[in-house]
Design a protein that fits this description.
mainly alpha; rod-shaped
Length: 132
């Protein structure tokens, strides 16, 4: 069953219990052994597995730890990520943003300047022996 807002609390607890039972069976461990590893009573574990809802969050986490699947809580409650605005504000406090620098303009050719061969700087030199 897929978790959904349409499910009642009882249905969600029953599904969690079912998934705990599947994980326990895959680990080839009895309810009593898992309860002992988790440091809770066997009856508390049975209530969790049956979806009775009488277990605590601490007991649930202890069972996840005993099954070595605590890391899956990252999927259930991923850490908050900062918004792009928060990232920008943090970065702007650290160091100033680089300023935009315009490229230096090339100086305009002087109308009287020459290339050294007598040809004005703004015009291409004529080729010898042919069309332009």
């Amino acid at each position: 069953m897929k978790f959904s807002v349409l499910l009642s609390n009882e249905e969600i607890l029953a599904e969690l219990g079912h998934r705990l039972a599947v994980a326990r069976i895959r680990s080839r461990i009895t309810q009593k052994e898992l309860a002992a590893k988790a440091g809770i009573s066997a009856s508390t574990y049975r209530r969790l597995e049956n979806g009775a809802g009488l277990g605590s969050v601490e007991a649930f986490v202890a069972v996840l730890r005993a099954l070595r699947i605590v890391d899956r809580l990252e999927i259930v409650l991923p850490p908050d990520r900062p918004s792009p605005r928060e990232i920008f504000e943090q970065e702007s406090r650290r160091k100033p943003l680089p300023r935009r620098v315009r490229k230096a303009r090339e100086p305009k050719a002087d109308a009287n300047a020459t290339w050294g061969d007598g040809v004005p700087a703004g015009r291409p030199a004529k080729r010898k022996g042919g069309a332009e």
